[in-house]
Specification:
675 residues; alpha/beta; Rossmann fold; seven-stranded parallel sheet
Length: 675
């Protein structure tokens, strides 16, 4: 049965559906069900509401779109192609999920222009959306004037049942409601199916009441398969509510149009199969071959190109006027969105001498943040309810709260995972903001997925972690990190720095800021900094410049050393003192500071050989964490003083002593290695 004619809207919606069906079928892999069900809401959103320019996907004042239910990515790829994004061609759709394609199995922002954030793990996308909306609110408060709005756009998110089940969405959406982010609009594809089957197996709460309790404006569209007017009206209402985020529950049928698989988990994560594809074509009256788009539908979608050019031209004219009236603000705005840093910006970083007072690196971190913000007003972030302990409050600013979006101190609350994904969203707003998120190092376990995604998606976030070892003391093994540094070092493209004193702390921030900004034409990237709770001396020989190398010779006796002592963080001072003892006994000792393995590995072979001569096999690493991986530098993992059990509740100094972090033990272990 072939329907004689379809309305233009039906042609457009079915074009989305069948591009998704055909791409998944060709790949024999993917999730066709969500695009088939969500096509109507996506069409209304992209055709009637969103402001974007397909020919300039990075236009700064575009609306942001996030497909939090990232498994349904063929919905987004279809829309990108149909609306005229140059980098998503029909051939790209045909290469869905194939090696090297621009259409991977989940949306990846660094591969596909028009994709704002990398989604896949459910719930991350809606939390990213909160970050995007926070970035818009903060930028608007920084730059907009009563007679000139240059930052004025919305963030739209499509999320599914799985996103709403994940705890991270609750963390982020609770904060969004508290902050009253009126330009955040979430559309819930309520299709009641997950991989296991019907959501009634595990998920029966009233999601609308939950979001209402969060402080969101809540609406419902009971018939999301066909009632385009209701979807349109709900989006209009959402845009009119400016003092709280909006949540629209749109009930759909997963796999809509499939005669035998619609409304089943069988259409969630597998190709329909040739027979069911044919049956769906007949059922929806789609008399077109695979990947064929009706001219009327394509012509309609491509009107987005003209609209987008008009939107951007209008904004460019407004910004030109803004530059004339507010040249200072315009210059800062342009510097930020171009990811530029002021010349010699790093001169704001504090420096220290051995005569400087002994201090915890977390305190020096706080001083550094407060120095940076005076030069880089794009700094924006906070802590997961640990600001007094993390030392992350910016003294020159108030709290980022509803109606006070100009302020820079974000109170994330006890929401580590949500904080992580929100910071990623702020970074991926791509407006030059410099987000940081802080907690205790141990709680990176709560937010590890978000940290991993920051590295994967090239999000320029500064992760500020304090209480970096068993030296935190009495809180005991639940709070004492042991394996965390080793596990974080395993994340590709994440640079981890564990500074030993004030100069290395400043050096760590120089690295972090410049990685976040993509200095030198490199991709933007995150950096994780781990700081001590206990006071540490400022050591002779440390510097900002040396820290940037990741590892360097702190002290040496000349010639070939009898042993190399390697330290990081608070344990470097033990190596320094032990070296003096050993030198007093006639030994030639080299002390190496190794605050970052990743940065050291970026150095050339000649430099690495100069620090660790291959002829010197007597080496000892001292770090109050897991020994895992240290054999890379010590030749044997046994050549470490480390912590390979859980910690213990005791004063920090006592814990360090009991676990062998004393000068006496370093000397004894070094002698045993030398033989």
């Amino acid at each position: 049965m072939v329907v004689a004619s379809q309305s233009l809207e039906d042609l457009c919606i079915n074009s989305i559906r069948f591009l998704a069906i055909d791409a998944v079928q060709k790949a024999n892999s993917g999730h066709p069900g969500l695009p088939m069900g969500a096509a109507p809401m996506a069409f209304v959103l992209w055709d009637r509401f969103m402001r974007y320019n397909p020919k300039n996907p990075n236009w700064i004042n575009r609306d942001r779109f996030v497909l939090s239910a990232g498994h349904g990515c063929m919905l987004q790829y279809s829309l990108l192609h149909l609306t005229g994004y140059d980098n998503v061609t029909l051939d790209d759709l045909k290469q869905f999920r194939q090696w090297g394609s621009k259409t991977p199995g989940h949306p990846e922002n660094f591969l596909t222009e028009g994709v704002e954030v990398t989604t896949g793990p459910l719930g991350q996308g809606i939390a990213n959306g909160v970050g995007l909306a926070m970035a818009e609110a903060h930028l608007g408060a920084m730059f907009n004037k009563p007679d000139a709005k240059i930052v004025d756009h919305h963030t739209y998110v499509i999320l599914g049942d799985g996103c709403n089940m994940e705890g991270i969405s609750g963390e982020a959406c609770s904060l969004a409601g508290h902050l009253g982010l009126g330009k955040l609009i979430a559309i819930y594809d309520d299709n009641n199916i997950s991989i296991d089957g019907h959501t009634e197996l595990a998920f029966t709460e009233d999601v609308m009441k939950r979001f209402e309790a969060y402080g969101w404006h809540v609406q419902e569209v009971p018939e999301g398969n066909t009632d385009l007017d209701a979807i349109h009206k709900a989006l209009e209402n959402a845009k009119s509510v400016t003092d709280k985020p909006s949540f629209i529950k749109v009930t759909t049928t997963i796999g809509f149009g499939s005669p035998n698989k619609a409304n089943t988990h069988g259409v969630h994560g597998a190709a329909l199969g040739d027979d069911e594809v044919a049956a769906t074509r007949e059922h929806l009256g789609w008399d077109y071959d695979p990947f064929v788009i009706p001219d009327d539908a394509l012509n309609h979608f491509r009107k987005a190109v003209e609209r987008g050019a008009s939107y951007e031209a209008e904004w460019n004219q407004a910004f030109a006027t803004y530059k004339t009236k507010y040249p200072q603000e315009a210059a800062l705005f342009e510097r930020m969105i171009n990811y530029e840093l002021p010349a010699d910006w790093h001169k704001c970083l504090p420096t220290y001498t051995p005569e400087s007072k002994k201090d915890a690196t977390r305190n020096q971190s706080g001083a550094t943040l407060n120095a940076i913000v005076e030069t880089l007003p794009e700094l924006f972030g906070g802590s997961a309810d640990l600001a007094p302990s993390n030392k992350t409050l910016l003294k020159s600013s108030g709290d980022f709260q509803k109606g006070q979006y100009e302020n820079k101190n974000v109170r994330f609350g006890v929401r580590e995972h949500g904080m992580g994904a929100i910071c990623n969203g702020i970074a991926l707003h791509k407006s030059g903001l410099l987000p940081y998120g802080a907690t205790f190092l141990i709680f990176t376990d709560y937010m590890r997925n978000a940290i991993r995604l920051s590295a994967l998606s090239e999000a320029g976030v500064i992760w500020v972690m304090t209480h970096d070892s068993i030296a935190l003391g009495e809180d005991g093994p639940t709070h004492q990190p042991v394996e965390q540094i080793a596990s974080l070092r395993a994340i590709p493209d994440l640079v981890v720095l564990r500074p030993a004193d004030g100069n290395e702390t400043s050096g760590a921030y120089k690295v972090a800021v410049e990685r976040a900004k993509g200095v030198g034409g490199k991709p933007t990237a995150p950096t994780l900094l781990a700081f001590s709770r206990q006071g540490l001396p400022n050591l002779a020989g440390t510097s900002i410049e040396n820290t940037e190398k990741g590892g360097y010779i702190l002290s040496d006796d000349g010639g070939t050393p009898d042993i190399i002592l390697i330290g990081t963080g608070g344990e470097l001072q033990l190596c320094v003192e032990a070296a003096e003892r050993l030198r007093g006994e006639g030994k030639k000792v080299r002390v190496v500071s190794l605050p970052s393995w990743e940065l050291f590995e970026e150095q050339d072979d000649a430099y690495k050989e100069s620090v660790f001569p291959s002829s010197v096999t007597s080496r000892l690493a001292v770090e109050a964490g897991s020994s895992l991986g240290w054999a890379r530098y010590t030749i044997s993992e046994d050549n470490t003083i480390a912590v390979n059990t859980f910690g213990a509740s005791a004063p920090g100094g006592v814990a360090l002593e009991k676990f062998g972090f004393t000068v006496d033990n370093v000397v004894a272990k070094a002698k045993a290695i030398m033989g």
